[in-house]
């Protein structure tokens, strides 16, 4: 079937963004997503619904991260302006503090493209903070945003979606028509046969969902060994995500009372308006960021498929760590670019862009 010409394994924000880039190029009808978990599901093996989420300077300072961040920020800013309410993304005032000075490359990169960017004068910084900035961020209602993406992909662009777990990446080649497979399996890339990338590891975060409609701004404090953040969840009737933790190599879905207490005391100190009778704790969650030593892997590979060993192309796109929502679109564009020639060679007629 031609609808299986391009297959994406994974329906987290990374797989969905790859599908979106393909669909925007006119290949929606030729693309199938297969995934064990789909938007609307919750599982510790499905990271995307647990994200804060916002655009933050918490990402790395290497060239890839800086480029993907920039691309992703512009995309989200544009989406917020054109379709923010439906997409559950919104421009939001933001403050970020660092206890240790970030790299100059990072600061210069942020200053270049972040809307309303300005450094906070040293005398205005809280005690213990070495550097701070104000800018306009984009907040994302993660669980509803991925549902929006799925709906748009299936209803507007004709992308096919099948719930299916594969035990080997080569099972992504669903039929002889399948020429290109995108591996967007997040944390599962460590164990999935045919990939088994030992550089992958989970980074656990516990978060609290609270109702606190008095909170209108995003605030983050990047400590040496802690991460504290307050992210108003857009179009959620006053819900706010409080965090958090960055526990490398920890893979439990359990939540812990002392972590809840620590998150509450750190976030109230950071934003005193939270310390109010109006703040109601709704729940505590844990999610596992799909981290990877050296950063995300966006790369193509030639493979041999099936008993006959026919040639296939596999494009890896995983290891987004704590940045899948902010960097995902840039990663997707580059992943698709790696197979531009092969997609053209499929000889399928691209539909006009809708
Ligand atoms: C607490 C927390 C806060 C965060 N905050 C932010 C934030 O503010 N901003 C930001 O940008 N990012 C944030 N993140 C990070 C972000 O959530 C991740 O980078 C992103 O969700 C990763 O998406 P993914 O698609 O790679 O993985 P996932 O969402 O885990 O999706 C993986 C997909 O692959 C499928 N799959 C796996 N194995 C198989 C298999 N064998 N067969 C079939 N399907 C399979 C799964 O079912 C799923 O559909 C946060 C994460 C956490 C935990």
Topology diagram in text:
Layout (H helix, E strand, L loop, with lengths): L5 E4 L3 H12 L6 E5 L27 H25 L1 E10 L5 H10 L4 E2 L11 E10 L1 H15 L3 E4 L16 E4 L16 E12 L6 E5 L4 E6 L6 E5 L3 E2 L8 H14 L9 E13 L4 E9 L4 E9 L5 H14 L2 H6 L9
Parallel strand pairs: 1-2, 1-7, 2-6, 3-9, 7-15
Antiparallel strand pairs: 3-5, 4-5, 8-11, 8-12, 8-13, 9-10, 10-11, 14-15
The structure holds flavin-adenine dinucleotide.
The site of flavin-adenine dinucleotide has 44 residues, from helix 1, strand 2, strand 8, strand 13 and helix 6.
Family: Belongs to the DAMOX/DASOX family.
Keywords: FAD, Flavoprotein, Oxidoreductase
Pfam families: DAO
Describe the structure concisely.
This protein is of the alpha/beta class and 354 residues long. It has a domain at 1-53 and 141-199 and 293-354: Rossmann fold, CATH 3.40.50. The protein has seven helices and 15 strands.
Feature tags:
9-stranded mixed β-sheet; 7 helices; binds flavin-adenine dinucleotide; alpha/beta; 354 residues; Rossmann fold; 6-stranded mixed β-sheet; 15 strands; single chain
What does this structure look like?
This protein has seven helices and 15 strands. The chain starts with 5 loop residues before the first strand and ends in a 9-residue tail after the last helix. α1 (13-24) links the parallel β1 and β2 (31-35). The protein is an alpha/beta fold and 354 residues long. The chain has a domain at 1-53 and 141-199 and 293-354: NAD(P)-binding Rossmann-like Domain (Rossmann fold, 3-Layer(aba) Sandwich). The radius of gyration is 20 Å and the shape is globular. Helix content is 27%, strand content 28%. The strands form two sheets. Strands 3, 4, 5, 8, 9, 10, 11, 12 and 13 form a nine-stranded mixed β-sheet that branches. The chain has a six-stranded mixed β-sheet with strand order 6-2-1-7-15-14. The site of flavin-adenine dinucleotide has 44 residues, from α1, β2, β8, β13 and α6. Flavin-adenine dinucleotide binds at residues 9-15, 34-37, 46-48, 50-54, 56, 165-166, 184-188, 192, 205, 207, 243-244, 287-290, 318, 320-326.
């Amino acid at each position: 079937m031609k609808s299986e010409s391009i297959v994406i394994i994974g329906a987290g924000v990374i797989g969905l963004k790859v599908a979106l880039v393909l669909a925007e190029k006119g290949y929606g009808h030729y693309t199938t997503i297969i995934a064990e978990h789909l938007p609307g599901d919750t599982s510790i093996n499905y990271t995307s619904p647990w994200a804060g989420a916002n655009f933050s300077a918490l990402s790395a300072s290497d060239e890839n991260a800086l480029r993907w961040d920039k691309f992703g920020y512009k995309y989200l800013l544009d989406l917020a302006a054109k379709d923010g309410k439906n997409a559950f993304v919104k421009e939001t005032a933001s403050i970020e503090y660092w206890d240790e000075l970030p790299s100059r490359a990072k600061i210069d990169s942020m200053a270049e493209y972040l809307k309303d960017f300005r450094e906070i004068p040293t005398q205005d910084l809280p005690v213990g903070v070495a550097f701070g900035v104000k800018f306009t961020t984009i907040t994302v209602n993660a669980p509803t945003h991925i549902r929006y993406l799925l709906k748009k992909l299936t209803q507007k662009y004709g992308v096919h979606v099948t719930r299916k777990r594969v035990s080997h990446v080569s099972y992504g080649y669903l039929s002889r028509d399948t020429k290109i497979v995108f591996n967007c399996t997040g944390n599962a890339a460590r164990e999935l046969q045919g990939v088994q990338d030992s550089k992958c590891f989970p980074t656990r975060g516990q978060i609290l969902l609270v109702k606190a409609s008095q909170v209108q701004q995003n605030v983050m404090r990047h400590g040496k060994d802690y991460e504290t953040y307050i992210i108003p969840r857009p179009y959620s009737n006053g819900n706010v995500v409080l965090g958090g933790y960055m526990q490398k190599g920890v893979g439990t879905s359990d939540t812990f009372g002392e972590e809840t207490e620590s998150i509450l005391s750190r976030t109230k100190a950071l934003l005193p308006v939270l310390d109010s009778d109006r703040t109601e704790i709704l729940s505590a969650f844990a999610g596992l960021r799909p981290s990877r030593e050296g950063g995300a892997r966006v790369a193509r590979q030639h493979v041999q498929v099936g008993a006959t060993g026919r040639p296939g192309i596999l494009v890896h796109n995983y290891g987004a760590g704590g940045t899948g929502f902010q960097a995902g679109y840039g990663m997707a564009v580059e992943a698709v670019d790696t197979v531009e020639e092969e997609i053209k060679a499929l000889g399928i007629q691209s539909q006009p862009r809708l």
